[in-house]
Structures are given as C-alpha cells and as structure tokens.
Automatic annotation (TrEMBL):
This is 2-isopropylmalate synthase. The keyword Cell inner membrane does not apply. GO terms for biological process: L-leucine biosynthetic process. Its main location: cytoplasm. Residues 1-21 are annotated as: Disordered. Homodimer. Keywords: Amino-acid biosynthesis, Branched-chain amino acid biosynthesis, Cytoplasm, Leucine biosynthesis, Magnesium, Metal-binding, Transferase. Residues 31-305 form the Pyruvate carboxyltransferase domain. It catalyses: 3-methyl-2-oxobutanoate + acetyl-CoA + H2O = (2S)-2-isopropylmalate + CoA + H(+). One of its GO terms (molecular function) is 2-isopropylmalate synthase activity. It holds the Pfam family HMGL-like. It comes from the Bacteria.
Length: 570
C-alpha cells in the first residue's frame, strides 16, 4: 500500500448544503420497493439465471410483496427477452405488480426492449446513461450536451412507442448512472429535461432513480446529494424520487436510510445484497430495520430461511453466517455474559410489553426462526448458557449454586474435548449426559436401595425406613424428623447437615418428573458437597440428591463408605 494515498486518491466532493434537513428527519413509512434481483443481481452472477430459476425468483418476489420488480435487460440475451415474453403471455404477473426492464439509451436496444413488453398491462421502461465526467470523457467521448441528446432521443423513442400502444400503461424511469459522481447541476438539468420530454404529470410521474453506481463516500454525502436533488428538481411533484445504492464501502444500507430521510420515495436493491461487485443495497436488512422500529415494511419475511434457500439456489452464492437477520449465527450467543443476559431477558419477558431481550434486536420467531439456536455452548460460555440449554431442552432448572459448580465441570470437559481435537461445542444432550455423570451417578460408593416414608402416630413426625448399600455392605435403618429430609438424614445417622435445599418440577402431566438439589456439610465443617436427584416422586428425588451429595463429598470418597457408616453407628 502507498505511504501517501492522497497522491493517488482524492476525497469525494461534498455538495454545498449547509441548511440540510435530513439529519433531523425520521423514516415513518416504508418506501416503494423495487427488487432488481432479476436484473442487477442477475447480471453479477457467475452464471446468470436460466428461465426456470428466473420464474422461481419472480414468484418468490411476488409472494414477499414486491409491487415493482425489474425482471430483465431484454436486449441483452434471448433468455432475458423470452422471460419477459413468458411473464406477459403466460399471465404470470399479478394485477398489483408492475414489471420493469432496463436498457441503454441506444435506439436498437430501446426498440428491442419495447418489443419485449408487447401486451403488458403496465410496464416501467428504465432508460439509463452514465453522466459523470469520467464516463462522459473516457467511456462515451461525449460532452454534456451530447449525453443529454442521447438520452432525450431514447425518451422520445419510448414516448412514440407508448403513444402507439395505449393498451399498456407506460411508466418511464430514468437513471443518470454514476449520479453520485456527477456534478449536481448537470444531473438536475438532465432529469428535468427527461421529465419534460416525457411529459410527466403528478398523476403519471416519472421515476427519477439516482444511483450510487459505485459507492464512493460516507452515507451522509449521498444523503446530501439526494436532498439537494429533492430540493432543486424543477418538477418534484411529477417525480417519484428513487435511490439505488451499491455497497462498495459497505454502507449501502445506511446510505439508503439517510437518503429516505433526505426525501427519497423509493429504493431499488436486491435480497441479501446481491448485485454488482459488493452488491446492491440489501432490501431485507432495510425492510427489517424498519420493522424493528415498529414500521410495517410492507414486505413479508416471515419465513426467512425459505427465502434464503431460494436465493442461494437461484444465485448459487452463499449467505454469510453473519448476514443481518438471516445468517445462521445471527440469533446465536456463545459467550457467557451474552447468554446470561438473554436467559434473564427471556425469564423476565412480558409477551404484552414491547420486545426488549438483550442482544436480540428482533424476535427470531417473527422471521420463522426458532429459539433453539439462540444459545450454544462452547469454551466461551458460562453458567447462564448451560442452564438455559438444560432448562429449554429438559425442563431442568439448576439452582444458581449448582449452575456455578456445573459450569466448571463443563469447562473442564470442553478443555478435554479441545485437547483431543474434538468439536468445541456441546449440545444440550451432551450437557445432560455430563450432568447425569456428575450428579446422578457420580460414584456407586453409596446406593439407595429403598426408602419408605410414613407419618408417625402424632400426625406430624415423619419417619423413613431406608435401605442402602455402601462399600459392599447393606444397611437398613429407620429415622424420624419434622420432614422427610430430616427423617432420611436421621436414618443415615451421619455427621452431616443440610446447608440448602431446592426442588422443582421438570415436566407436567403423566410423565411428570421432579428435580431436587441439596448442599451438605459435615458437622465439623471440613467437607461439603452438592448433589442432585431426579425422580417421578419429589421425596425420592430429594433422598437421591442427599445420596448424590454424599457420593460427591471427599470425606466419603476417600474413606471406605461402609466404614463411615459403621463409625457413625458407634
Ligand atoms: C450500472 C449498471 O448496472 S448498467 C447495466 C449493465 N448491464 C449490462 O450491461 C448487462 C447487459 N448488457 C449487454 O448484454 C450488452 O452490454 C448490451 C447488449 C447491452 C450491449 O452490447 P454491445 O453493443 O456489445 O456493447 P457493450 O456491451 O460493449 O457496451 C458498451 C457500449 O455501450 C455504450 N453504452 C454504455 N452504456 C450506455 C448507455 N447507457 N447508453 C448508451 N450507450 C451506452 C458504450 O459507450 C459502448 O459503446 P461503444 O461500443 O460505441 O464504445
Ligand atoms: C442502471 C443503474 C440503475 C444501475 O444499476 C447503477 O447505476 O448501479
Ligand atoms: Mg446497479
């Protein structure tokens, strides 16, 4: 790269607009949308779409709700010409949809383009000519006047054809290609001349489309250019002001949004930002940006994955997993603090209140996505994500103390997986298996064989007759207390006490199960452990949780468990 890029590159000139209004405006309604997936998108593919793929894309664009669709560059190829003919002759165009076709301002190409529209109910004829100094001088070898005459001749040719074919409702669209690199006064004069020559009226306005053919400046500069035109065009009331941003600097969406604030009525672009080079502006992002501000975009992306599938199959191009609103990973949090916040957000969610879940700017369900992938666990994850997966997949609600402890267990398992060159991610099923190995069967040193709970004659005291095995010996004892857990501990007759206890239902109905969690500490305070139990019966679950905690307590792991019980009995 150059140490002094200013020798090679010049900053883009900024229009003189000190009293610009757009910064304090807001977008309050959806613009008119035009999809150019079948033209600008199509012309930028390795392999332009065949007729079948074009039909598939057209049907989908109609289903999404586009009312204006640029379907072809009919003079470019027989495929494009035939596609337009098929749409018209086979009546594929819904009554509320208008097709558009693009052509250079050259007489034989205009003629072929008009021929393709024979019999259309309504059609937009889109004429373009590049207007910037570089194009005038280098590409065309024309001065301003010659460029003007070239486009006006094409407008007149189209006008004559339109007058001769009143069975079609004709709409003229003009694009000064490279508008954003054109002197504003020249662009304005040219557009005024086109509107005059066509005879645009407030009832039948001309679409003046101002492209950022190659994005060259920050979006505010484009907004200034659009506002300048909006305020200086002679016949604003006879014009639908349209924008056509490309994404060379990666800011096409911002440019389109600021352009709408600056006075544009209409936006041309492609789904997922397909199109020349870095693409046209992404209409899905634009529309869903409106949606998340509470504005109806008038386009339906309720099954975004199906739309993505059709687009990738038609274009043969992938969609980035980070693509706004649709990428595979855009509703997924791996990192611990994000997962924690999302989990808390879902827990506190009021379905009647406005959406405000941390890290999720839109409800994935609105786009047909599920919450399944919202949280995925890898080495960057913490307790929140682990707990979320176990709760959503198994209804297992871990108490905070268990969450903290189990997150450490998961982290160690993840490190082992990583060192063994295995996947760095853990599914809900893998987490559950690890939970079971950690808490439900940590060792078989002590196993509960049977327990019977009864209420004593006083009607208050609980008694438990428990049978368990430890270190190969079988024990059977009875205990009593003011509750089942106290009675069970009394039966075990060990120097331990309960520090904390929590239980919750995992499922409801006939297959209902409950989970119980307990923290035990030895009377001398030297050893402590947490345990868990899952059972159809909550009392059995709590007894298993106690056995689980004993099995996980170092005092019982290092000693011979049978000795511990013998010792406790004497
Ligand atoms: C920014 C955009 O996306 S614009 C749309 C671009 N899309 C396409 O080009 C796809 C379809 N295009 C094609 O199939 C072909 O270019 C055709 C059929 C239109 C024309 O093909 P050709 O006649 O072989 O010309 P070619 O493709 O080389 O285009 C360059 C010629 O068009 C002229 N030209 C380019 N744009 C325009 C225009 N808008 N109006 C008038 N003439 C133009 C150039 O000056 C050049 O003329 P020259 O050959 O006399 O120097
Ligand atoms: C033909 C015009 C509208 C175009 O695609 C562009 O300038 O990018
Ligand atoms: Mg373009």
């Amino acid at each position: 790269m150059l140490s002094q890029p200013s020798r090679k590159y010049r900053p883009t000139p900024v229009p003189d607009l000190p009293d610009r209004q757009w910064p304090s405006r807001r977008i309050e309604a959806a613009p008119v949308w035009l999809s150019t997936d079948l033209r600008d998108g199509n012309q930028a593919l390795f392999e332009p779409m065949d007729t079948a793929r074009k039909h598939r894309m057209f049907r989908m664009l109609c289903a999404i709700g586009f009312k204006e669709i640029e379907v072809a560059f009919p003079s470019a190829s027989q495929t494009d010409f035939d596609f337009v003919r098929q749409l018209i002759e086979q009546r594929h165009i819904p009554d509320d949809v208008t097709i558009a076709v693009l052509t250079q301002a050259r007489p034989h190409l205009v003629a072929r383009t008009l021929e393709s529209l024979q019999g259309a109910r309504r059609a937009i004829v889109h004429l373009y000519i590049a207007t910037s100094p570089t194009f005038r001088e280098t590409v065309f070898g024309m001065n301003r006047e010659e460029v003007t005459q070239q486009i006006l001749a094409a407008v007149e040719q189209t006008r004559r054809h339109a007058d001769a074919h009143p069975e079609t409702e004709w709409v003229l669209e003009f694009s000064p290609e490279t508008f954003n690199a054109t002197e504003p006064e020249f662009a304005r004069d040219l557009c005024d001349a086109v509107v005059d020559r066509w005879g645009g009226t407030p009832e039948q306005p001309v679409i003046i489309n101002l492209p950022a053919t190659v994005e060259m400046a920050t979006p505010n500069v484009y907004a200034d250019q659009i506002e300048w035109m909006h305020r200086h065009l002679a016949h604003r009331d006879r014009i639908v002001l349209s924008v056509h941003p490309h994404n060379d600097r990666g800011t096409a969406v911002a440019a389109a949004e600021l352009a709408l604030m600056a006075g544009a009525d209409r936006v041309e672009g492609c789904l997922f930002g397909q199109g020349e080079r870095t693409g046209n502006v992404d209409l899905i992002t634009l529309a869903l940006n409106l949606y998340t501000q509470g504005i109806d975009p008038q386009l339906d992306f309720g099954d975004i994955d199906a739309i993505a599938r059709v687009c990738t199959e038609c274009s043969q191009l992938p969609i980035s997993p980070r693509h706004p609103y649709v990428g595979d990973l855009v509703y997924t949090a791996f990192s611990g603090s994000h997962q924690d916040a999302i989990k808390k957000g879902f827990a506190a969610r009021d379905p009647d209140a406005p959406w405000s879940i941390p890290y999720l700017p839109i409800d994935p369900a609105d786009l047909g996505r599920t919450y399944d992938a919202v949280i995925r666990v890898n080495s960057q994850s913490g307790k929140g994500g682990i707990a979320y997966l176990l709760e959503t997949a198994y209804g297992l609600r871990l108490p905070r103390r268990i969450q903290i402890e189990f997150a450490g267990v998961v982290q160690q398992a993840m490190d082992r997986q990583h060192q063994a060159g295995q996947s760095a991610e853990m599914s809900a099923a893998q987490l559950m298996a690890l939970f079971e190995a950690t808490y439900l069967a940590p060792t078989t040193a002590i196993t509960l064989v049977e327990s019977r709970l009864a209420t004593a004659a006083d009607g208050v005291t609980q008694t438990v007759k428990a049978t368990w095995e430890a270190g190969g010996a079988r024990f059977e004892r009875q205990g009593s207390g003011n509750g089942p857990i106290a009675a069970f501990l009394d039966a075990l007759d060990l120097p331990v006490r309960v520090q904390w206890y929590e239980e919750s239902a995992m499922t409801q109905g006939s297959d209902a199960r409950a989970s119980a969690f307990v923290g035990l500490v030895t009377d001398d305070g030297r050893y402590s452990a947490q345990g868990a139990g899952i059972d159809a019966n909550i009392v059995s679950a709590s007894f298993q949780a106690i056995i689980s905690a004993l099995n996980r307590m170092d005092a019982f792991r290092v000693a011979d468990p049978a000795m511990a019980f013998e010792a406790a009995a004497h």
